[in-house]
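Here is the promised in-class demo. Please do not try to memorize the tokens; focus on the logic of going from shape to residues.
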């Protein structure tokens, strides 16, 4: 599995912890930045990871900003992306099982980094349930002309 990661300055530290964790468990990581802790604009980095998912250059992406909100908004502007902002392991599981989320947005400033890694693990290990949820995902795709 290839996982894209991206962050702004507020998510920089957590993004790096996630990247290290993913590599440690044997996943390939493509880092779209930022590569420094100085202030940057989250749309510049979030869109790169989201486009990589949309263009199927990576399997999924994890994006991090201060609250996770900005990155999730940016990612959801990209055709074919279903980004979910998850603050708990349960949200992460449901975002995959019910919504087939292909981008995970996390807050760098609102949750403990150890909890964030647990959320990442749950999100990556959870599969889409399909069934009635597939019909709902199809309706989302219709909204974006897919």
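The designed amino acids, position by position:
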């Amino acid at each position: 599995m290839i996982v894209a990661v991206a962050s702004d300055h507020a998510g920089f530290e957590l993004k790096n912890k996630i990247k290290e964790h993913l590599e440690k468990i044997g996943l390939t990581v493509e880092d779209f930045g930022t590569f420094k802790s100085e202030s940057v604009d989250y749309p510049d980095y979030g869109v790169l990871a989201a486009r990589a998912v949309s263009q199927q250059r990576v399997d999924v992406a994890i994006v991090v900003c201060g609250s996770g909100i900005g990155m999730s908004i940016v990612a959801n502007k990209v055709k074919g992306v279903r980004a979910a902002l998850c603050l708990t392991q349960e949200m992460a599981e449901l975002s995959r099982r019910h919504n087939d989320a292909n981008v995970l947005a996390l807050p760098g400033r609102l949750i403990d980094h150890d909890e964030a890694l647990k959320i990442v693990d749950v999100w990556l290990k959870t599969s889409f349930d399909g069934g009635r949820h597939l019909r709902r995902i199809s309706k989302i795709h219709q909204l974006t002309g897919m």
